[in-house]
Amino acid sequence: MTDETRRASAGLDTSVPNYARVANYFLGGKDNFAADREAAEQILAVAPEIRTMARESQAFQARVIKFLVGEGITQFLNVGAGIPAQQNTHEVARSLTPDARVVYVSTDPVVLSHSRALLATDERTGVVEGDILHPAELVADPGLRQVIDTERPVAVIIISALQFLPDSDDPFKRVAELRDWMPVGSYLCVIHAVFDARPEVAAPIVDVYQRVLDRPGENASRTREQVLGFFDGLELAEPGLVYIRQWRPDNPLNVHRPEKAWLVGGVARKSGP
């Protein structure tokens, strides 16, 4: 981790692993501490394919943004954003439509510090402290409303904020509340780890993330059929909720053993009444 980041992270308990910094480690980033690397290595010992899955997730996001821009979407809300890396939402979107407006949402101090420093002079991009569990507060945030026109369609992208939230947090209800706020013509994108193809790794991986998120004893593993519930009331775009390698691949030859990247993803539209 750079000296700048260490200064920005002053006051953090770096002995406790953090979800965003663990993800940063999987992508080969340097914005992580020893506790994060230890937790990440525990996960990699069970499922070494996680590193590949992290890169596949980035590629999936880029394809989703390309699709959404093609559908006329120019506003993006990235909920549960990670530490800025390559192929950030605003960079991909602006490469396709220069007027794209993006808001990143996170509760992680390192993510917020990095993002605000990176985007300090960008009026079309915002960084908001918030999470999926408090959608009413999130959509009322002045920082969000300064960037996003809430009367126009917006794409809500939820990449990692749901997959380890237990049902006791009512994540399906929270996503439904966000869906109800979205203007007609908006889209919801969700990516979620599922263990249909690797049931043997569910318990050890969930156990690590329970400790990372300080939620011991609350199992948040889900199957594809359960993840479908996040799209209730919306119209899934083709090819539906599938393994991310199968979702509109740039090259069909790249769809090899899709279940090896055991993340499912989908994009759905909110239609009119």
From TrEMBL:
Keywords attached to this entry: Methyltransferase, Transferase
Record GO terms (molecular function): methyltransferase activity
Enzyme class: transferase
Pfam families membership: Methyltransf_19
Record's keyword annotation contains Methyltransferase: yes
UniProt-listed GO biological process terms: methylation
Lineage: superkingdom: Bacteria
Entry EC number(s): 2.1.1.-
Protein name: SAM-dependent methyltransferase
